[in-house]
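hi support,

uploading two proteins for the ticket. first:
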Amino acid sequence: MNKFNLTPASFLVYGISVGTSTLIPFNFLDHAQDQGIATIAGGLWSVVLFYIYTSLLRYGNSEGDFLDLIKNTFSKNLSYIFLIFYSLFIWLAISKDLAIVWKTISTVILTKHSPTFVAFLFVLHIFLICTQGGIKSILQLSVFYASVCFVINIIILIMSMNNIEYTNFLPFFYKGVHPFIREFATISGNSSSEIFLLLFIPEVCKEMRTDIKRFLFPLIFIVATNLIKYTVSLGLLGEYLKYVPTAPGGAAAGVLTIGTAQIRIEPLVILAWFITAIIKISVEYYILSNLAARMVKNSNMNTFLFPIGIIACCTSLIIFKNQIEVINFTRTYAIYGTLFQFLIPLFFLISLKFKRIPAIS
């Protein structure tokens, strides 16, 4: 970590970006072969967003977050309005991510043991935040979770190499550029652009103002992880993706043949692709509880942890009835994401430049 100037926040970027996006099946996209190019474009999009976010944060003080910046440079009322808007958007995001996690588990992978596994996931979020010190614990544990995720993905790729059909990756742009644009929008909304969550963590905002390199370096591993998912899913299944409409490709592949042995990779897929969901949902849970406390001007965020968790879970169960609904919603979510993750921060950045407020060098 010292050699590459990394901090726990660097691993948090990985956990948030990978998050639940690896659980979205490719067959819901227009043309799965274009997903690899869209993944690389999504990584470049993250660089653009980081430039916008860091440029924006340099106009604020060294202790505040995005909402504090709006409050100090514009008005308290405007800050409160966007506090409500972003609370609603993050509430929608955590409902979507919870649905992706437990709908995938309960309908495809762990049918017999899904209630226990889902309960464990939710209890773990509360444990991380309530008993282990909030965001500091999430930052520290993200180092472990992100490292395990990437290493296991490498193992999955190595195990799959002999079974991959390389002809499954061609042709590119078979249906034109439009499918690529839609796939890029899905990736940017559900993966690359989710780094907007960092704008609501003051400790991370402080680091983003001083050294952006420690946040850009993890993007290499984020793109690599998404490309591994692309390689394993499409390389193993190819056209058979359309017969597994609700399963992540790697999990649906099931059995790999290595020599004379047959090995099932679902346990590895669960470990690699669900572990980052713990990081992302924990961050969303922490931020949403913090925003709720700020909304009613209560300094004790712990008061809101349990009710916010219950509301998020109930909302997730009410809105999304099945796996197909939640996966299709990722496209709609990308539209909302464009507004909250990109257009609003860009609007405030341009406004600050026109106001000629000096930025922190």
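and the second one:
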Amino acid sequence: MASDEQDVQTTTSPRDSSEPSEGILKTIMGLRGLDISQESLFDFELPPGSTEWPLSPYGPQSPHLQYAKGRRSARDKRCSAVASPARPIKARKPKRSTSAKRKAEPRQDHGPLPPRDEPLHLLNLPGELRDIIYDILCLRKDQLYAQLRPTLQKEGRHLRKILRRHPTEPILALVNKQLRREVLSVFYGANSFVFRRSNETLLEKYSMTNPIHLARFMTPATCFIRKVELKFEAKGGLGIQFHFSHKLRKSQAEVVTISHDLAKTYCSCLEDNAVAETLAEGNTSGVGRDLVGLASLLSIQRQNKLDGVAHKDQLEGGMYKLPTARCVLCHRANLAHVSAGM
């Protein structure tokens, strides 16, 4: 027994920490009374001609030796056990031959290209052809209603309200100075412009018969306008509302005429006096050639005369009510209410 205990103690002596599984195996074999260095004996013999086991039955290289598994780290536990798919293998392109490339040669010799003409510019065309092009781009079949439309324009972090003129000028007028003068002379000179108070809610306070808004509509190019029509509201004796117009015309000889279409059954003394004073003041002030400027002067003259002989009736939308039913000078019927265009 003493020898057995001594064998157990010798077999259970600790080995190097680098081979922990071999020490465990020796302990187990020592408890069974065996030595790991001894070869295992079997109770049968191998038949002749059989091959021997190429490896040692026990030891560090034995396939029966089970090595202890280490603990998984926290990072390995978080990682998925599913292996990532392998990247597909790209087929290699065959190497190009190192032989010199042949230069491209034309299949057919066409000879030299014929000389091209110089590019044709719009300003190089004759004036008659340019006028035809401008007529196509600028002429309108119907009358153009002048407006000042409020819009919001962004300036930095803030929005600013501005008034834009309508109708807008043709885009061709933005090319250069010569085209601008030629295009706008056709656009303003051939079309007829109407100035009146709009019935739209957003444009109600931007009446185009107001002298202030007429002055804002003026530009250096509006001197080409040859047809302007100012429309005013009025009410007759029976309370029927209608419109009458002041038509301003400029001939080819730069002669300006102003006429109105107020019915002859009503007194037109106030309108006639306003027209005469407008023409006289336009010639002296230098705005006689600009019909928009003359329209602004005419609106001011009517406003001043109505302030002197009538009073505003707020129940009728600010229209002026004349004091008498008939005119003292011409003895014709006065309008019940007439608008000054503000």
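thanks. also noticed: Residues 56 and 62 are 6 Å apart (CA to CA).
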